Amino acid sequence: APAGEAVLLRSEPSYAAAVLVSLADGTPVDVIDGPVTGSNATSWFNIGVGGQTGYVPAGTLIAAETAPPVAEEVTAPPAESTEPTESPSTDPVDVAPAAAPLVATTDVNLRASPSYDADVLLVIPAGAAVTGAGSAEPGLGFRPVIYNGVAGWVDGAFLGSEALAAPEEAPLPDPPALDTDAAASTGTTITSDDLNLRAGPDATAPVLTVMPPGATVEITGAPENGFTPVRYDEQSGWAASEFLGTGTDSGALPASETSDASDAAANEPAAAAPAPGGGSTGIAWPFSGGTWEVIQGYNNGTHTNRSAFAQYQYSLDWARTDGNTAGQPVYAPVSGTIQWVDRGSGGMLIDAGNGYGVAFFHVTLDGGFGSGQQVQQGQRLGVISGPGGDGYASTPHIDLTLWQLTDGGHASAPFTGQNAIAGTEFPASGVANQHMGVTVTP
Fold it and tell me: What one-character-per-residue DSSP string does 61-89 give?
């Protein structure tokens, strides 16, 4: 485990799968198969250990041949050496043995080679655990380490052995593919007015019954032709997606009326896909009370774009400065339609209806939420997870992510302009770990 923490062996390649056993850092294991693609497009290895088999995230294994030797004591770099994001001390630094977990004592660059001129691979946040991968480079004080599965070099002056508070979160899931129709394929929703339940996904299909306003219906499959398959009062059929959970007057024809194709089309139009960026997203703070701080900013650690589909470059991790984060209530940051709920990561994506969606993670959701439901800004959705909670990741916090929803994808977007949070902008400049340490009092 490169981060120096225990790794959970799971029954299936999914963060939601049952935990079979907890493996300590450095446990020898046999790789059976992998990498394999698990739920939400995450990557896993099938391994065997102690006569038991299961799955671990791909980033938690290193080859046994690279087991690090004990590190040597090193000194800080010469005074004339300078580093843009670090201020080295001139005092000698005792570096812990490579087998022991190390931590970054400040935000520090992970470089491609032991030189201040080498490329910066990423920035390791203060308090983050790293694994020593060998001895210090003589005369320079750089240490080879592994952080989040990435090997590189760090100035040893900024490594210590006492753990500091910092989130070491499991990789966030690849978001599921969006259905571009108006409703999602699972969950429940409600009708806004009298609405026809039809025998097929067509405005000319026979009307089976009329569902009253406010009726709860179960979504039983994927939308088709502007209609969603639903079950109401033990009867299955199709309802116009436009009028499920929108809060608008459907004007659906009563069952007793004759409905020809033109009348039905006028009364039950298909939902139109919103144009990306059309109108303000209207994002509010998902938490309240106390002072909250960014503990991981843009372009850092887990906040990267792993693929064109799974993008987290402009995510922000928030926690209360007084440490009282776990159990804090979480409120809907926008009004809109729930696109998906992922209990394994404690995540939810809400489509704001203007081409953007707001997602959050590491939250233990209240019961009853599912795809296709409508939520209102300020509605309580759950609490920030503590140990054992949904998507808990070593430090209680909430990850807030903004996506532009285009062609079923998720394009990471910064919180600026129409997407500012309660009027507060978080522009993107490309700086690593941008906005780290920013505080708000919502």
Answer: ---GGGPPPPPPPB-PPPTT--BTTB---
Q: Is 308 left (phi over 0), alpha (psi -120 to 50) or beta?
A: alpha
**Other CB atoms within 10 Å distance of the CB of residue 200:** 15
pLDDT confidence tier of residue 252, bands split at 50, 70 and 90: very low
82 or 215: which carries more pLDDT confidence? 215
Question: CA torsion, points 138, 163, 99, 149, in degrees to nearest 10?
Answer: -80
How far is CA 413 from its chain centroid? Answer: 14
pTM for the full predicted model: 0.44
DSSP sequence for 326-342: TT-EEE-SS-EEEEEEE
Q: Which helix (H) or strand (E) holds 264?
A: helix 261-267
* Residue 245 region by backbone torsions, left for phi larger than 0, else alpha for psi between -120 and 50, else beta: left
DSSP string, 222-244: --BTTEEEEEETTEEEEEEGGGB
Q: Where are the alpha helices (DSSP H) in 50-161?
A: none
For the segment 128-150, the average pLDDT, to the nearest whole number, is: 72
DSSP assignment string, 338-400: EEEEETTTTEEEEE-SSSEEEEEESEEEPTT--TT-EE-TT-EEEEE--TTSTT--SS--EEE
Q: What is the pLDDT of residue 289?
A: 92
C-alpha to C-alpha distance for 308 and 410, rounded to whole angstroms: 8
Per-residue model confidence (pLDDT) at position 149: 73
